[in-house]
Amino acid sequence: MLERGKASQVFMINPALAESYKALFHQLGKEKFFINFQEDETRELFKKTRYLHRAIEVIYRPQAERVSHNYQSSLSYQHDGVVHIDISHALRSFTPREVFSCKRAS
Q1: Which of 2, 10, 48, 82 is the most interior residue, by most CB within 10 Å?
Q2: What radius of gyration, in Å, describes the C-alpha atoms of the chain?
């Protein structure tokens, strides 16, 4: 487990739980897509569904995946749309030199 303020680590994320949106979207077989909940038909369809929604933030606890990072949700009630990317990679942390050498946007 990694705590805030500590050196960054890269974790392999556990596979999506079978009863999750991530598993449902993966089964569609598309690498990436957008679902627009502003469209009435799409919004109404998703209002009828409740799956697990994975939330991984600064602290990831793979051994407690179900209770720490998944919750029941209805996506169209919570979001205007969803971008799904089936497989992604970890972001790397900036070094202090990179942070301090960045130029501010005007």
Answers
A1: 82
A2: 17
| Separation CA 54–CA 70 (nearest Å) | 4
Task: Express as a percent the part of the chain with pLDDT over 70.
Answer: 76
Two tokens, residue 90: 């970890």
Q: Cα–Cα distance between 34 and 12 in angstroms, integer?
A: 24
- Write the single-letter amino acid at 34: F
The first and second tokens of residue 98, run together, are: 């990179």
Task: List the domain boundaries for the chain.
Answer: 21-101
The Cα-based distances of 82 to 38, 50, 64, 68, 74 in angstroms read 11, 15, 25, 21, 12
User: pLDDT tens for residues 79-105?
Assistant: 899 999 998 887 777 777 877 777 665
**Measured between alpha carbons, how far is 84 from 98 in angstroms, rounded to an integer?**
29
Work out the burial of residue 70: count CB atoms within 10 Å of its CB; fewer than 13 is exposed, 13-18 middle, 19 or more buried: buried
pLDDT (0 to 100) of residue 29: 94
pTM value is 0.68
